[in-house]
């Protein structure tokens, strides 16, 4: 074998290894949706258990073709803002890049990983609107969130040429802002128009606790979400090849799987302990705190010292509970699983923490170093990218009478009224 043949062989092997790596990251991410489905079925009342599962499955099914039709193109074409780059059709469904090619061992697996990221945003959103949204309305909003709004935020804050990255040094490798903030505040915009479940608030404004029918489902579901996040976060790294130093983060800077392993687990533990302490032993918040802990250190998974990741996670687990209470009390919303707080508020904390504790951290190429100001700008943008379409589109849907199921249907149960089914016989 000549030296040239050996180089071709080594390059091909590296590409195949990368392809296999993202294949399994994508497969593992599906457990996120298994987890959210179980989590929400358990948090629903008996009469809504099937519909809660169905809307998760339908969002997953609709996200895949819509992300193929236009979601992936949005990521590639709009890093500079609202004016598209001329890609000569690349990323569009009629382009040869969006089909099987023996010479392309990257496009399909990256598209698949980003599609599963998009599906995750829909799953985050689904918990906040349990038991009173129309199934068709939810699916439509989920597609807007996952195949349009989220991926536009990713084009700006994850793409190496994204304007937030190149102008402000925005750093968010684990998507605390790009995924979790956008999904959480999109959900907030929708629930403002959707209104609370029947029976949530009394005439005097006091709230009633509406408990799900089986907390065991929620426990197992939360653990499945955490399992899936190892695939999610693993997909946030790129194998550049041994000759280029191995792993790089989403922005092209050196990174390691070890840093992600250390900091994900430490943030998880910190969040669980912080929420357990703050909630005085509430098991539901303990597990939700684990998720918040991961999001709290997600922006800097590639740079944190594990002890700091634990502290960030602990703070995240503590703050989500008073934040959830304040949002409910102030806006009279109804978020049955605390998704807005766990994802939206913890996401803010994760993005801001990167500016507070890693300001000046160097980036690759001509990207400016991390700064508090840059993270703050990114934080504002991610909030708006989520909240504005969530509120605006759901407002129009509400005016059309196509958002919320009638109160009589709520009382009877969506399973029976819309699906003609019961969860259990």
How would you sum up this structure, described in words?
The protein has a single domain, classed as Ammonium transporter AmtB like domains (Ammonium transporter fold). 66% of the residues lie in helices and 1% in strands. It contains 14 helices and 2 strands, in the order H-H-H-H-H-H-H-E-E-H-H-H-H-H-H-H. Strands 1-2 form a two-stranded antiparallel sheet. A hairpin with a 7-residue loop joins strand 1 and strand 2. Helix 8 runs antiparallel to helix 9. The longest helix has 41 residues. About 1% of the residues have low confidence.
- Specify the CATH architecture: Orthogonal Bundle
Strand content range: under 5%
Helix tally equals 14
End-to-end gap: 67 Å
The CATH homologous superfamily is named Ammonium transporter AmtB like domains
How many strands, which pairing sense, and closed or not: the largest β-sheet?
A: 2 strands, antiparallel
Mean pLDDT, all residues:
92
As for the number of domains, it is 1
CATH class bucket: Mainly Alpha
Rounded to an integer in angstroms, the radius of gyration calculated over CA atoms is 21 Å
Helix-strand makeup class: mainly alpha
Order of helices and strands: HHHHHHHEEHHHHHHH
Beta strands, count: 2
Using the alpha-carbon principal axes, give the shape.
globular
